[in-house]
């Protein structure tokens, strides 16, 4: 009987783990199935570019997994039964159940408006390709309209900054405003904040700092201080959330729904379930929770791979690095900021800006896409054979501190 590995989600984390496990584990002993709702690999890191009107490559997952032995199930995950080790899915044929021995939970995150009045009805987000496409179509319409139009980006995190600058550069006929809850670029170093402000000035992005939004309407936004901002297209980037599937399954999760994992990315409550990427609450080597990011997807995915293979082959689990070096921010196609952080997560004084930073960010994105879409590269001639049932941890109570998780 083959050991069944089911991977939920084919984003950066899920696709990377699936391809690597297929490279390193023998098909004679293992069966790998990836469940994903759409047929293509979506470059989420570039959805702000797609929304701004640029062409973004979306490789077919069928082609990505060709020759790997990975089975692709195009379906939406609706439930996980952690006790029976079964996943329920819905598809065009009505769906069904998939049994698993090892589950890799990589469903990621999605945009969340936190129940802000009017946001669901009137705001766009770019956390998924369909929502980014709706924004793109709206911007296309505004570009064709006499006099252009106004675009309002709510949220000054990395997604908000990248969206505002990208739209302003790609569509100079539209006026762009960015609303920041605090100081623009508050998490950046002093020099990087100044650079960001210079770029906003150059691209004519208006910035409203220390401003909170209370209501989103069809053609305007109402702020807590009484300010009213006109908007023909409001972009919401101020929050992200994870699906409630893990929580509904009884898996131990944080208040925001992320699966609490140990140092090997295994659920602390349900051995055999591994969480990676945005869906995992993992403590980094600096003792702090890893943030939702592509970099975290890579580190948590690598650790999960090592743990799964070790437990299936009777080896000791090797602990890989769990680090967070900093942020790579694109500011249009010709500018950017690379901001490194210290062990406390605070910005280091030095930063890299302008074209060098833009080239670094572009290189990271290209490398991520290439690695994800070429899972058979370097495939070993001899693969690991499964020699034992997975060595799992005994279910324990939820740890109270990061030190307990680590």
From TrEMBL:
<dbReference type="Pfam" id="PF07992">
    <property type="entry name" value="Pyr_redox_2"/>
</dbReference>
<keyword id="KW-0285">Flavoprotein</keyword>
<dbReference type="InterPro" id="IPR051169">
    <property type="entry name" value="NADH-Q_oxidoreductase"/>
</dbReference>
<dbReference type="InterPro" id="IPR023753">
    <property type="entry name" value="FAD/NAD-binding_dom"/>
</dbReference>
<dbReference type="InterPro" id="IPR036188">
    <property type="entry name" value="FAD/NAD-bd_sf"/>
</dbReference>
<keyword id="KW-0560">Oxidoreductase</keyword>
<comment type="similarity">
    <text>Belongs to the NADH dehydrogenase family.</text>
</comment>
<dbReference type="GO" id="GO:0003955">
    <property type="term" value="F:NAD(P)H dehydrogenase (quinone) activity"/>
</dbReference>
<dbReference type="GO" id="GO:0019646">
    <property type="term" value="P:aerobic electron transport chain"/>
</dbReference>
<protein>
    <submittedName>
        <fullName>Oxidoreductase</fullName>
    </submittedName>
</protein>
<keyword id="KW-0274">FAD</keyword>
<feature type="domain" description="FAD/NAD(P)-binding">
    <location>
        <begin position="4"/>
        <end position="297"/>
    </location>
</feature>
